[in-house]
Amino acid sequence: MAVLTADKKVLHADLQGDSLRAASGSMVAYTGKVEFKSAGMGGGGGLRAALKQRVAGESISLMTCSGAGRVYLAQDAMDVTVVHLQNDRLTVESDHILAVTDGLQLDVQFSGLRGMTSGQGLATTTVTGTGQCAIISDGPLIALAVNPGEPLVVDPDVYVAGTGQTQMSLVSGVSWRSLVGEDGGEPFSLRFEGQGTVYIQPAER
C-alpha cells in the first residue's frame, strides 16, 4: 500500500508497485516510474456514485497514480494533514480531499447541513475502510475531540471533516457575524454529539 507523509503544504506519496487516487491536477513533481490517468468522478463507485455526485452538484475529480516512485502533491498552497483509518469512517467535505490510498472506499452522502448554512454544497464524501486519507485545509487543521455528554458546536464555514461515532445536527443561535451586521440570514451552527473527532480549519470559507 502507498505511504502518505505530510510535509506542511506538500504531500509525499511513496509508491512501491501500487497505486493511489489523488485530486486531479494536484501533482507538482514526481520521481521514478509513475503513470497518471483519470479516475473519473470519485474514483470509484461506478455510475450510481457519479449520478449521486451530479445531483448533489459536488463531484470529485480524481486521478490514479500507479507505479514505483515518489509523487509530490499540493493544491493552492493549502496545509496538508494525513488521517489514518483502521476499519473506520471519515466524513469530509469533498473539495478538501487531496489523496486516498487503496483499501479506502469513497461514497457521497447527502447531509445538506453545510449547504443549508453556507450555500457551498449539499453533499459530503464518506471515506471508509483501512488506509490513509490526505486532507487539505486553509491553515493548520485543528482536531477537536467529541466526548459523550460534551457536545461540540462549530461554525459550518470552518468544518472540514469528522470521524468516529458522532451525530451531527443543525442548531440556530446568535453568531458573532450577526452581531456585527455581516450576516443577513438566520445564523446556524453544527452540533456534534457522541464519540469521535471533528476537524476544522482556522479560516472561514
From TrEMBL:
PANTHER family: ALTERED INHERITANCE OF MITOCHONDRIA PROTEIN 24, MITOCHONDRIAL (PTHR38074)
InterPro entries the UniProt entry points to: AIM24, AIM24_sf, Trp_RNA-bd_attenuator-like_dom
Pfam families in UniProt: AIM24
Highest taxon of the lineage: Bacteria
Name listed for the protein in its UniProt record: AIM24 family protein
Organism: Cellulomonas fimi (strain ATCC 484 / DSM 20113 / JCM 1341 / CCUG 24087 / LMG 16345 / NBRC 15513 / NCIMB 8980 / NCTC 7547 / NRS-133)
